[in-house]
Give the backbone structure.
Amino acid sequence: FLGVMPAYSAADDALTTKLVTFYEHKKDSSVPSHQATVLLLDASNGTLKAVLDGSVITAKRTAAVSAIATKFLMPPFTEVLCILGAGVQAYSHYDIFTELFTFKEVRIWNRTKEKAEKFASSVTGPVRVCSSAQEAVTGADVIVTVTMATTPILFGEWVKPGAHINAVGASRPDWRELDDELMKNSVLFVDSREAAVTESGDVILSGAEIFAELGEVVKGTKPALPEKTTVFKSLGMAVEDTVAAKFVYDSWSAGN
């Protein structure tokens, strides 16, 4: 797939488009499944100002949005973080989650155990490698799913009541990471209603009702409900790339 994600932020007076390719590698590949480039344009006249590494921006901004969702939606007392998947997004989520929150234990599971072990040995803090997704999830307070799964790998019967889940993978209308039980028995938050009902297999195929967009929670127009079991379905929005690219460009310009 080739995706083109243009956006303009009036608040930042920033204009960008992101070009992102996605190739489903049947075998483990040295080439990432997702590759991206962000073009930052002068909003007043359209001149190209910068070409930025869209893969880094995508990884960082996606994890940042998950962290914002977690800040609002996670239970009051959190001890265990679980990450399902060991790719690029697993690293970016680990970095920001361990920077912003305090967990007594971090667990990881990946379909290929060697990748999970490599992850555990290369990050800064202790990580427990689990032999099954169920082992990793059981008793976890915050769960992050960043997999290439096309059918559910996380099941409602495993999830601790009151846990918060950031569902980041399964960005196609026919792909799933979460089963119907979890989707229907959780309070569902999304980044974009419009995108979720056309792009997310977890939302479309389960028939789960969307309670709120994350922006509504941030603005205070919808409650966060951290006492409930919550799911944040993240698909990503072009404006997140725009704001991130402008932030990087402004920081670079100030340094120069």
In short: The longest helix spans residues 54-73.
